[in-house]
Structure formats: structure tokens, C-alpha cells
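user: can you give me the structure for this one chain? C-alpha cells are fine.
assistant: on it. calling the predictor now.
[tool input]
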Amino acid sequence: MQRLELIQHWLSALFPDQPFSLAPASTDASFRRYFRISFADGSATRIVMDAPPEYEDCKPFIHAAALFGAAGVHVPQVIEQNLAQGFLLLSDLGDTTYLSALKSNLQTSGSAENANQLYAAATSALVQIQQATRPHVLPEYDHALLRRELELFPEWYLTRHLGMTLSDAQRNTLDQVFERIIAANLAEPKVFVHRDYHSRNLMVSEPNPGVLDFQDAVYGPISYDLASLFKDAYIEWEEEQVLDWLIRYWEKARRAKLPISADFSEFHRDYEWMGVQRHLKVLGIFARLCHRDGKDGYLKDMPLVMRYLRLACERYRDFGPLLKLLDAAETSAEKLAEQSVEPTAK
């Protein structure tokens, strides 16, 4: 029986006297899919998460939903669950993402008039999540996990996507840079980390925002979710504007007595270095999605991620060796593009 038939069968057992229809709600970068349930009697819509158990585990989602919900954050309520088949029935937070709302405003008015309000709500919700922090409740964002994420960059972006063969010296350079990045990340104060807190996972809702896709939440660096939010792979803002939003978050965090540096410049440096870790990881993930999973839609977002990465590398002397490697990767990409062009027939 196909997954969609299994979902229909499960829902029919849950709602035996309520005719309903299913429509795709969204997909994400994993094997999860989401469907919106509309009932014939007009009652509130619901969302079904389809997470094939051979690939995905619903329990981390349920656990994080309980933690974040208890912190007062607007997350989907888990109404019913079928862990054996990998189905969750969730409350519906609507279909307007931050990304669509921001881009719609940009297209209609030429400016994102709603951006200040939306990002203020997003940072307030983030502070709530961070205030709920307790150790040993979520997995540790430790050295092994940070390093495993960084290794996606040479494996999938450099080697698989660009066809680049690293020399021993280049590999050694990467190893040294990776260890410096991880040391800086691990030196930060630790809080609950959503780990994918950006415009496609935040919903315009009441209360605002609705927060989705938190199943990979960990206990880790306080700046991580800020790097996700303000160095967003899907929408770009002027650095001056981002700095203003970041300062406003920092002020909220200090008022909330979060373990954040009293010196904004120190916090900003942590945020920048955390961004480098994330950008390297994301480039690897986007390449893997294309070459392993056949999802090439993320390739168009790579240039923005690379731009963030280069800006940080240019700003900090420690990243000089990494910048040279990025230049070499760019040359490799140009050669690969040349090889893929067929010679003109004579």
C-alpha cells in the first residue's frame, strides 16, 4: 500500500463520520512530506506529517514541540500520532511563511515594510526558546556534530559538486580552519537551538510567529539561530539593517538574563564565526540534495550562501587560508563549466 493510501486509511479511522480531502501542504529537504486536511463540514483544517519510519523518526519532533510549546512559543500541537507508520496529526499554523510575506511586500510596495515587525516577533520567540534552556534535555551540539556538518563541504560541495580534488596541503588547511571554527563555536554560552530558524520555517500566524521544522533541535551556541535567521539562504538584507536587528535581539537577550556577552562586538564576532560554520554546512547540504536526492531547486540559493561566506572570510584574518581555498574552488568550477560545454562543430 502506498504512503498516501496509508494516510487516508489512518485518517478515516480517526474521523469515521467526517468526509475530508487531502492536499499537499509542503515538502522539505528531508524525506518528510506534509498534507493539509480539509473537512467537508468546514471544521478547522489539520496537517499530517508523513515521515517514513525507515528514514525519519517522529519522536524528536514530538519532544521539541513539547519543550518549545511549554516555553510559550507557537508550535504545532501534536493531536494524534502513529509512530509505527510515521504519521503525526498536527494543528495547522496556516500557509503564509515569513519568506512569502516578505517577498510579497517587496513585490507590491518595493520595500519590506513588514520586516521590522516580523523579525521583532521572531527574535522575541527565540528569546522564549532560549529562556527555557536546560542541559541534558536536547542532544548536545558537540565537537563531533559540528565537525560532521563541516565535512559536508569538502565531500559534497568541493568534491562532488565542483569536481575538485583537494591536495594534501588544502586538506590540511581545511582541517585547521575547521578546528578554529569549532573552538569558537564551543566557547559560546549554550542554549536550546532550533537549528533551522529562518524565513521558510516561520509562519505568519496568531500568535506570531508560528515555528516549524524544529525536530533537529539541540543544546548549543547561543548565536546559531541568529545566524540562521539573519544570514538566511533564501532572502538577503542590507548589512546595516541586519546589524540593527541583531542589536535589538542582543538587548532583549540581556534583559531576559540570557548568558550572552555584555560586549556586543564579542557577540557579533561569535555570530559571524557561527555563520561561517553554517554556510559551509549549507553549501554541502544543498550539493547533497542535488546530487544524492535529485533535488536541484536549492542550487539557485548557493550564490547567496557563498556571498555570506566570502564576506566573513574577508573580514577576519583567521579565514585568509579558507578564502584562498574558495578562490581555488571557483577556478575549479570555471574549468568544470568549460569542460561541460561541447566544442563548436567545424
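assistant: here you go. The first strand starts at residue 20 and ends at 27. The chain has two domains: 19-91, 98-340.
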